[in-house]
Amino acid sequence: MRNVSMTEAVADYALSLRYEDIPENVRIHVRTLLADHLACAFGGSVTPLASSVRALARFTGGEPRCSVPGLETKTSPLMAAFVQASFANALDYDDTGSRGHPGASIIPAVLALSSCLKLSGRELLTALVIGYEVNDRVARATLPSPECYAKVHANGSLQAIGVAAACGRIMGLDREKMLNCLGIAGAMAPVPHAGKFGWEDKSIASVKDNVALPSENGVRAAVLALNGYEGSESVLDGESGFAAMLGSDRCDPDILCDFSTFTLPGVCLKPYPCCRWIHPALDALSELKADCGFSSRDVVSLEVATTPPVAARFGKKRARTFLDMEFSTPLTLALLLNDVPRARWFEARHWDAPSVRETAAVVTLAGDDGLWKRFLELGRNSSCVPAAITVTLRDGRKLKSLCDRASGSPEKPLSAEAQTRKWRELMISACGQDAAMLLETARHVDELACVDTLTSLFPAVGDEPEAGAERS
Fold first, then answer.
1. Exposed, middle or buried, 243 (CB in 10 Å: 0-12/13-18/19+)?
2. pLDDT of residue 468
3. Which residues are within 8 A (CB) of 223 and not within 5 positions of it... i.e. 6 or more apart?
4. 294-318, pLDDT tens digit by residue?
5. Confidence band (pLDDT; 50, 70, 90) for 460?
6. How far, in Å, CA of 288 to CA of 291, rounded?
7. Are β-strands 398-403 and 363-367 bridged in parallel, bridged antiparallel, or unpaired?
8. pLDDT value, residue 470
9. How far apart are CA 441 and CA 449, in angstroms?
10. What counts of helices (H) and strands (E) characterise the chain?
């Protein structure tokens, strides 16, 4: 790779990877990620956020060519990518990489184009692997310093390149057009918005992790490049390259150009529908609850020591919308303690219930410099945000637990039973059925002669969220 630029290295990888080159453990994991994504998309399709996205699809849908989980009618590939990405990330239950939510951007775009072009499951799976692998290189290579990260950083914005590489492969681009595709995607990627995520505003913004625009953008870039539209052929290179466009002060070419191993098995599944940074605290509480058998009524206080950034921003005890809940340590811990089904955490009748508010009121957060040091030692990975909890019970007991690696990560994978339970709960929540055939087909997607076999199994979902799903 030393004889090619960073952009050329990505393009060459996207063009050269063959299905036969993909190890079976990687194939198994991407099949699992696909099933998880579809379940999350269906679950997200009944949230209040989904109503806005549906309205956009009706207004600007275009030619009805693609089926979308939870959307009643077919829509255009561009809109399918946007809608499905929005649905998949709505619950914050979707997969996480070293940074961000890669699957929410990559899978909708690849699925839409593969369905339109009547491609095989093997072609779909190969493109998904390309998307995830490229995304991970960009994410790790452009991770800004902690000082820069505190000022400006990208969430979904950085996923534009991985999505474009996967879509370019689906569209059968040659090397020149693949370079153009990457350049177009980089130029049209959304600006980094994490500084205006909603921490200091009225609530967390609906755009949140910003996964939908990069998904739509990848489809657009690939189709434009195929038809002669040009972009920078060096978008990833130099001091003015994509890293600088993302607001990063760092770009490591050794990371970005090294495709000698597969990192996709490091993409994590989420056992809780909330920000990954809260998961270690939830794991610590879940383990104590299971071992010691207490309930929310038994808890006098719940102290959480965590990294200073989490303590500063994740401590809200009241939510204005379900998105606020997803970034509230007190509310998510309270929902867990009150045994609310996880696929229904988004409903206001749960997160705004008196019992949940009362439990959240006894939760306190404190920043801990030692845990921050541990976070840095673990590589600043979203699955490794340490939390130490102390639960004081009415009988006088003080229970303590520390967790620095969230479940669903490679070190603590979800069991097959936990995966199935999550997917079934999401599907039943969305459409009243567990859709076992759909999920089983996703887990054998590379055996399909045509991807339409999978999309034809999408069950119908009602147009509006269940009454009481959001505060008026």
1. buried
2. 40
3. 77, 171
4. 999 999 999 999 999 999 999 999 9
5. confident
6. 5
7. unpaired
8. 44
9. 12
10. 22, 4
Q: Report the C-alpha gap between 110 and 33 in whole angstroms.
A: 13
Q: Which three-class secondary structure state does DSSP give residue 381?
A: coil
State both tokens at 133.
Answer: 């692998």
Specify the DSSP class assigned to residue 201: S
Would you state the pLDDT for residue 472? 29
- Token output for 216: 């739509």
Q: What pTM was computed for the model?
A: 0.95
- Measured distance CA(164)–CA(14) in Å, rounded: 10
Q: What are phi and psi of 402, to 5 degrees?
A: -125, 135
Q: Give the distance, in angstroms, between the CA of residue 395 and the centroid of all CA atoms in the same chain.
A: 40
Contact of 161 with 186, CB cutoff 8 Å: yes
> What is the pLDDT at residue 234?
97
pLDDT level of residue 194 (50, 70, 90 thresholds): confident
pLDDT tens for 358-402 read 999 999 999 999 999 999 999 998 899 999 999 999 999 999 999
| Angle of CA points 203, 38, 465, to nearest 5° | 50
What are the backbone dihedrals phi and psi of residue 364, each rounded to the nearest 5 degrees, phi first?
A: -125, 145
Contact 243, 250 (CB under 8 A): yes
Contact criterion met (CB below 8 Å) for 246 and 154: yes
Closest CA to 337 of 296, 382, 284, 383: 296
Q: Are 320 and 48 within 8 A, CB to CB?
A: no
Determine the pLDDT at residue 462: 57
CA distances from 318 to 32, 121, 353, 358, 414 (A): 35, 45, 11, 10, 30
CA–CA separation, 313 and 324 (whole Å) = 11
Q: Would you state the structure tokens that stand for residue 143, as one six-digit string?
A: 């991770």
